[in-house]
Amino acid sequence: MNGEDGSQQSHTPVLLRAVIAGLNIQPDGCYMDGTFGRGGHSSEILKRLSSGGRLIAIDRDPAAVAAVNPALERDPRFEIVKDEIANLRQVGVERNLLGKLAGLLLDLGVSSPQLDDPERGFSFRGDGLLDMRMDPTTGVSAAAWLATVGEKELMKVLFRFGEERSAGRIAKAIVAARAKKPVLRTRDLADIVAAAVPARRPGKHPATKTFQAIRIYLNDELRQLERALDASVDLLAPGGRLCVISFHSLEDRRVKRFMRNAAREPEAYRGLPSIPEDQRPPFRLVGKAQTASVDEVRANPRARSARLRIAERV
Ligand SMILES: C[S@@+](CC[C@H](N)C(=O)[O-])C[C@H]1O[C@@H](n2cnc3c(N)ncnc32)[C@H](O)[C@@H]1O
Questions:
Q1: Of the candidates 305, 228, 286, 275, which has an alpha carbon nearest to the alpha carbon of residue 18?
Q2: Confidence at residue 9, expressed as pLDDT on a 0 to 100 scale
Q3: Which atom of ligand 1 lies at the shortest distance from residue 12's CA?
Q4: Burial class (CB in 10 A: 0-12, 13-18, 19+), 206
Q5: Tell me: the pLDDT tens digits for 54-112?
Q6: Sheet strands (E) in 227-289
Q7: Does the beta carbon of 251 lie inside 6 Å of ligand 1?
C-alpha cells in the first residue's frame, strides 16, 4: 500500500476482494490482522467498520510497525501490536477478546518491502547481508547460523522446509565454501547453490528453495502458524471467520489439515441427528481454496502461489 503522503513502501495486498468477502465484515465487529505488513488488507477492513468496530493489527517486524500510516495511527478503532502470531491468544487475553473476534486474517510469509530490501537478506536477487529474520532484534541471522550449523542438520533443514531434492549436495557445498570464506551475503549463498546444482526450471533460480527453507526455519514459521490456528478456536466468536493466505505447500497443507479436522464431526456421532454441544466441531468450511485470477497474477506476480482458505466458527 502507498500512503497518501508516500511514506509507505509498496506491498500490493493479495486476494484482497476474496479476503474482504471471506471475512464477511460486520461493521461493529472486532477484527485481528495477524500479519499487518504494509496494511493493505487492514485498511480495507477498517473502511468497512463503523465507529463501533475495532481492528487489532500485529506484525513481528519492527519495520512494519514503524511504517504504520499516521492516519491509521490516529484512528481510535485501530491498534498496532509488535508481536508474533504464535502469541495471538495472549494478545487476545490481554484485551479481553477471547470468543469475541468477528474475524482473523493471516496473510503468511514475507512482504514485498522485506523481499525488496537487499539488507534484509531474504532474496537472492540483489546483494545484501544474509539476515532473513522477520524480527531482526531477536534470534540469529542466517549468516550466523550458516557459520556453525552441522552439514547433516543443514541438509535436513533444506529438505524439510524447502522440499529441496538436492539438499545433500547443497549442504555439502555450503560447508565446503564456508571453510574458505564465511558466507555473509545473499549473493555468496546464491552463487554457492547455483554452482552446486543446475537450474531446474528456466526463470527459477536454483537457490529459491534454499532461501525459502532457511527463512522458514530461522523464523520458526510453521510452528508460528500452528499456534495461531489453534488460538483461532478460542479467539473467534460464533460466526467469526478465519481467513488464511498461504504461499507454499508446507503452509497450505497445515491450514488445510487444521480446517478439515476442525470442521469434522467426531466419528462416534457421524450421521446422527444431534451431537452433544461439547462434541461439535468448532468450525465449518466456507468454500474451497481460492487462488488469484490470471489478471491478478499478471499485475502482482507474488499472488501466483497464494491460496486462501476460509472457515467459520460455529
Ligand atoms: C505477506 S505480508 C502481509 C501483507 C499485508 N497483508 C498487506 O496487505 O500489507 C506478511 C507480514 O506478516 C509478518 N509476519 C509473518 N509471519 C509472522 C508471524 N509469525 N508473526 C507476526 N508477523 C508475521 C511479516 O513480517 C510481514 O510483514
A1: 286
A2: 59
A3: 8
A4: buried
A5: 999 999 999 999 999 999 999 999 999 999 999 999 999 999 999 999 999 999 999 99
A6: 236-246, 283-285
A7: no
* Residue whose cell numbers read 555473509: 184
> Is the CB–ligand 1 distance for residue 133 below 6 Å?
no
Q: pLDDT of 27-47, one tens digit each?
A: 999 999 999 999 999 999 999
Amino acid residing at 261: N
3-state secondary structure of 307: strand
Side-chain-side CA neighbours of residue 245 (13 Å): 28
Mutation probe of ligand 1 site: the residue of 32, 134, 225 with most atoms within 8 A of C-beta: 134
Distance CA 75, CA 55 (A): 10
Grid coordinates in use for 49?
A: 467498520
What pLDDT is stored for residue 271 in this prediction? 83
pTM for this predicted structure:
0.95
